[in-house]
Amino acid sequence: MTRATNVGRVAALLVLAAAAAAVSNLAASTSRKLAWVGSYPRALEVGPAAPKAARPAAPNPAPGAPPVEAPAIPAAVAPDLARSFPPHPDKPALEIAPADVLRLYREKMLFLDARRSSVYADGHIGGARSFPVWESDIDDRVKKLFEEGLDQRAPVVAYCSGGDCEDSHMLAEKLYRVGFDNVLIYKDGFPDWQKRGLPVSKGANP
């Protein structure tokens, strides 16, 4: 009898603890919610990942091509671009070749620079936004990007300093956790962009 009473008390305590956690989480701000009960799409996602379509190789840019304009966020992704760069909900990011990066830039896709803000100010891809993963406000920046209501299945290019730099992959992980499932990594990063003589901006703004 005593054992059954103890089991009942333990069960009652567990139910009370779960209820208290749920109430506490509901009262918390969005940025402090637990991932398993948060409102972000990645936390709510269930079921198998969507199949990925094959991505054809993009042609290399021709020498003497017309100037490339700085990207602005498009209202919608062109169908051929969506077929070439389908979402990948099963992984945070995919690495892409420089020719693909240039194609996405010309199509005015969103570019994010994962390097420190001081390095960004010294020079960055024209039109790219600063998302420095090692700075204290990075989670706020990611949250604000989520709250802009962008198409989270549209291609987003993240880059850093190339080589062994992992900052762009770290940024991709953060974006993936709030629902962005089409982050593409410019593996060779800003040094390669500079070497190709492509548009560069300086200062704190895109």
Low-pLDDT windows of residues: 25-40, 43-62, 68-73
Cα separation of the termini: 71 Å
Report helical residue fraction.
25-40%
Instruction: Report the structural category.
Output: alpha/beta
Mean pLDDT reading: 78
- In terms of quaternary structure, the protein is single chain
Strand order of the largest sheet: 1-6-5-2-4
Instruction: List the total number of helices.
Output: 8
Tell me the Rg in angstroms. Answer: 22 Å
Task: Give the number of DSSP strands.
Answer: 7
N-to-C SSE string, H for helix and E for strand: HHHEHEHEEHEHEHE
- The outline comes out as globular
Content of β-strand: 5-15%
User: Main sheet?
Assistant: 5 strands, parallel
Structure in words:
This protein has helices spanning 2-27, 41-44, 79-84, 98-106, 117-122, 138-147, 167-177, 189-195, and strands at residues 93-96, 110-113, 124-125, 129-130, 156-159, 183-186, 200-201. With 206 residues, it is α/β, with parallel strands linked by helices.
Helix/strand layout:
Elements: H1 2-27, H2 41-44, H3 79-84, E1 93-96, H4 98-106, E2 110-113, H5 117-122, E3 124-125, E4 129-130, H6 138-147, E5 156-159, H7 167-177, E6 183-186, H8 189-195, E7 200-201
Parallel strand pairs: 1-6, 2-4, 2-5, 5-6
Antiparallel strand pairs: 3-7
Outline:
The chain is α/β, with parallel strands linked by helices.
